Amino acid sequence: MTDFGLFLLTVDNMDIIIALGMAKEGFDWPYCEHALTVGYRGSLTEIIQIIGRATRDSENKNHAQFTNLIAQPDAADDLVKLSVNNMLKAITASLLMEQVLAPNWTFKTKINDNDRAKPGEIKVHGLKEPSSKRVKDIVEQDLNDLKATILQDNTMLKAMPGNVDAEVINKVLIPKIIRVKYPDLSDSEVEEVRQRVVIDSVIKSGKIKDVGDKRFIRMAGSFVDIDDIHIDLIDRINPFQEAFEILSKSVTTKVLKVIQDTIEATRITMDFEEAKILWPKIQEFIKMYNHEPNIQSNHPLEKRMAECVVYLKNEKRKRVEKNG
Questions:
Q1: Confidence (pTM)
Q2: Are residues 220 and 238 in the same domain?
Q3: Residue 296 exposed, middle or buried by CB count within 10 Å (0-12, 13-18, 19+)
Q4: Domain match, 261 and 238 both
């Protein structure tokens, strides 16, 4: 197995990899562009972990695809419905955990008030730096797999809706799961991993905005200066509330549309002058066809009008967040 792993050094070495169970954890091939699974998966964790194989950043791709084949002749079968909805939940939770919609921050320990963060960094008071290569590898490579495991833990599922205090979740329940998943870690290493899981989840799901030359992040209903974040503050916030809200509900067409629009908004280049010209045409389109323009349309004008709709919705959302 070691020799096989060493052989796979470049994107050109391999076209297809067939994995019987290995793709769930321990499989690291960032060049992967398409993950194909066959049959029902045992849990959401499995789906999330497999999706994670194809969504890792790599210079050879700007598109990743996940396909789940279900061998079932009756598409109305309840088991099919359950499986499909579980897959959609997993994809949605993966988007939240992989932070497709958020900046990719690097977290560093803040030594003193004069210790300023570099671009792409957030400095945190009280944050422990990885003390071993093992912890560093977990933080850099396995954090999303660990989050998937945490999300599927029965005790955590009962605690995440708010039935258990956030500090108990962060300081008691999460460390227990880390110890089971990584029994070789010392207590101090468990704490280092725990802090990274919690801060990665809380910060990346927070809303960041600039006010003058300062940046603030909205956490637990209030804005905090990003240069003054302390790990003790992070530990008072439930890190998996958003993901739980997805896993606890059915993923409807409306929910998926919101997710799609949010992702598309990050890719659209448009200004208000163009939007102002397109808006009357969009209204005419809706009146004529009784639906909004489709962003997947092959017709370039309809596609552009659909992008305009997403742009305007996103601008409206940003104004609401700014004012309130």
A1: 0.55
A2: yes
A3: exposed
A4: no
